[in-house]
Amino acid sequence: MRYNVGERELIRLVHQTGAIFRDRTRVSQVREKGLDDFVTQADLAVQETLRTELSRRWPGIGFLAEEDAVRPERRDRPLWILDPIDGTNNLIHGFRESAVSLALWDGTRAVMGVVYNPFQRETFSAALGRGARYNGQPMGVSKRPDLAHSLAIFGTSPYEKERADLVFRQAKEIYLRTEDLRRGGSAALELCKVAAGRAELYFEFNLKPWDYAAGQLILREAGGMCTDLAGDPLPVTENADILATNGQVHGEALEVLGRQR
Ligand code: IPD
Ligand code: CA
Ligand code: CA
Question: What is the pTM for the complete model shown?
Answer without folding.
Answer: 0.97
